[in-house]
Design goal:
153 residues; alpha+beta; 1 helix
Length: 153
C-alpha cells in the first residue's frame, strides 16, 4: 500500500477485497443468475403446456355444445338430439378434424375426434377427444364426455 511519500508499507490495513474474493463472488453470482435463467425457461415451458391443455378442454367443451345444439362441426352438421334411436351403445355419428386451433378453425396444433352414441333409449352420450404434441414431442390428450336426455317435445 502506498504511504503517500512514495514508499510502500508491507502491512495490509484491511480495506478493500482481494482478487480471489472478487473472483469467488463473481462465480457465485454467475451460478445464481444462470440458475434463475433456467428456472424461468422451465416456467415458460410449463405455462405453454398448461395453456394448450386449457385450450384443448375449451375446444372439447365447445364441440360438445355444438353437437347438442345441432351446429356445424367443420363441414358436418350434426344434431345429436335428432339422430335416430338405436339400442344402447351403438355409435350414431362420429367425426374427426386434424390440425385445428383452440377455436376449431383449421391451422392449429390440435387433432379432434368426436362420437355420439346411444346411452339408453332416452339419452345420448357425446365423447370428444382432443390431442396435441407437447414442446418435447410427447402426445398429450384431453377427453370430455357427457350424457344428455333426449327432448320429449
Amino acid at each position: 500500500m502506498c504511504n503517500g511519500d512514495g514508499t510502500y508499507s508491507e502491512a495490509f490495513d484491511g480495506q478493500g477485497f482481494t482478487l480471489v474474493e472478487v473472483m469467488f463472488a463473481m462465480a457465485v453470482s454467475t451460478i445464481a443468475l444462470l440458475s434463475l435463467a433456467l428456472l424461468q425457461a422451465a416456467a415458460v415451458k410449463g405455462n405453454t403446456s398448461s395453456r394448450k391443455g386449457t385450450q384443448a378442454c375449451f375446444l372439447a367443451q365447445s364441440i360438445i355444445e355444438r353437437i347438442e345444439e345441432g351446429s356445424t362441426i367443420g363441414s358436418t352438421v350434426i344434431g345429436a338430439r335428432s339422430l335416430p334411436d338405436h339400442p344402447a351403445g351403438n355409435i350414431l355419428a362420429s367425426g374427426a378434424m386434424d390440425h385445428v386451433d383452440g377455436k376449431g378453425a383449421v391451422g392449429g396444433p390440435f387433432n379432434l375426434r368426436w362420437q355420439v352414441s346411444t346411452h339408453t333409449n332416452w339419452s345420448r352420450e357425446v365423447k370428444v377427444d382432443v390431442s396435441w404434441r407437447s414442446t418435447l414431442g410427447l402426445k398429450r390428450q384431453a377427453e370430455l364426455s357427457t350424457v344428455f336426455r333426449e327432448s320429449t317435445d
